[in-house]
Amino acid sequence: MPSPPHSSPADLVCFSHLRWDFVYQRPQHLMSRFAEVRRVHYVEEPVFQAGAHPHLSVTSRRCGVKVVVPVLPDDLDERAAVDRQRALLQDYVAGSCAVAPTFWFVTPTAFAFSPNDRAGVVIYDCMDELTAFDGAPPALLFNEKQLFARADLVFTGGRALYEAKRALHPHVRCFPSSIDQAHFRRARAYRQDALRPAVAESKPSMRVGYSGVVDERMDLELLADVADARPDFQFVIVGPVVKIDAGKLPRRSNIRFDGMRSYGELPELMSEWDVAIMPFAHNAATRYISPTKTPEYLAAGLPVVSTGIHDVVRRYGNAGLVHIAEGAEAFAEAIDEAGASRDDATRLIAVDALLGEESWETTWASMAALERAVQKQPDSGVTDRVGDGR
Are 335 and 271 members of one domain? Predict the structure, then answer.
């Protein structure tokens, strides 16, 4: 594990489209670690309430992060909402940050209302191609161009995204999905209890699991067809349903939608599965994704079956650690094959060797080092330190 970076005198203000208490993802992993050595303010999207007086709701989390939520009246138009948020955040940053803070953008949308004249270092952590998602605001692309022009550093959440963005800024670094390996390895210990005869006898012939947001990126038709092809298998889908009609979810006796579970529950849930799946559709929203769930599944000891997502194939499929399959028949057969290797020791050794290079601790420390280089030498650039990454 790398040594923690030195504490920065500058606060870190993170602007995110993801609620802190929603699915525990990349921003939470990184910001909770930064909060160990400096003050972190996590600015969420606004909440609109009838008759509300514009203000900021500021609450602290156990990890030390302050979650900042603009609360606005619901009768504001878009322009007025942007202006109110900027005014509120201008005062907040002026009163909370003794020196120019680092602004860390997870969403370009926030660039429109962030008080950028108050920022020191500006970082764009581009974890997804948000412009390709359903319901993306029309101004998102314009705001991203503005953010690229202001940013000192750009981080991308995967290789495909890096290749799409590297020509847009001189200092782009690829930081793919990382892993809290110790957390997810707990699933392997839980697995030993699950193998007790009394427990095993009550299980279906194969339990196939998915954890994550259920949205337009999932191929629901593929899921239904695979479930039909393997009626004796049980398919467990864990995660919130977002931006799609829940009434359109495939209803089968062997498909179970369990809803959202906490990050802490995931290892025990995964211990009950025989195979993990990533039945992603091929569309604009999946073109650049680098699913965090891939290393999480692998660390949990699970064999994985995925459709041919670029970053999954390149990093894990080519290494023989994820089965890649297209179409219901091939996908079902890949699940059969993967299930046979569930507790194979040789496979787990290869998994652990690869994942040892991908910890959140390493990613966080590397990002912090790049930020410090900009703070100390703002005019010298960081080209030598910022390459194409993994």
Answer: yes
